[in-house]
Write a structure and sequence with these properties.
This protein is mostly beta strands. The chain has no helices and 9 strands. It has a domain at 37-104: Sandwich (Jelly Rolls), CATH 2.60.120.10.
Length: 104
């Protein structure tokens, strides 16, 4: 792999929570994740980390501190860090695929 191209086909799938798997590339203090959902179940726990992403395929709804937002294929996602921006997925279309850029 050269430093300008990430070939996700060569990266192994890793298991997240049940029904969620991902491939990850880390560089310095950032990572790029390809995330695939085979479940419609949302997350039980709230997250306070920042996420920037893009919905490659599918649909999901994210509860951002009490306000639910729907995202579909082609939508960008920007979730700021912090307690006031805590978030969790509440509904996911199985087969949804995201690309996420995250600080480590």
């Amino acid at each position: 792999m050269n430093r300008f191209k990430i070939d996700f086909t060569t990266l192994p799938w890793q298991q997240g929570r049940s029904g969620v798997r991902f491939k990850v590339y880390c560089e310095g203090k950032r990572q790029l994740r390809l995330v695939e959902f085979s479940t419609s179940d949302g997350a039980d726990d709230w997250c306070e980390f920042s996420h920037i992403g893009y919905v490659l395929k599918g649909n999901l709804s994210i509860d951002c501190n009490g306000n639910v937002h729907a995202f579909k294929t082609g939508d960008g996602i920007f979730l700021p860090a912090g307690h006031d921006s805590r978030h969790r997925a509440v509904a996911i279309e199985p087969g949804t695929l995201l690309v996420m850029v995250e600080d480590l």
